[in-house]
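We both want to read discrete structure tokens more fluently, so let's practise on a single case. Would you write everything just below, so we can both look at the same thing?
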Amino acid sequence: MVVGVAILTRWTVIGSYVAAAWLVAIAVNLVASGNFLDVAVRDLVMATAAYALARLTEASESARAPAEVPIEGKEDRLRHGRVA
């Protein structure tokens, strides 16, 4: 439940990576037991979707971030403003 809340709030990336890892661990456990292989495949598909959500959220957040514009310091302005 905590992972679901994390995905729905501002911690989407972290929650998605945790959910993906958790689902892969469940799928590995199911495959190792030899039973419920269909459920293991379903969990791997959901893990892939959680990973994709994390990557898409990272890409979306980086696209929204404002570009950093370097600000000139006072020293640079004074040096360029001097007349020889």
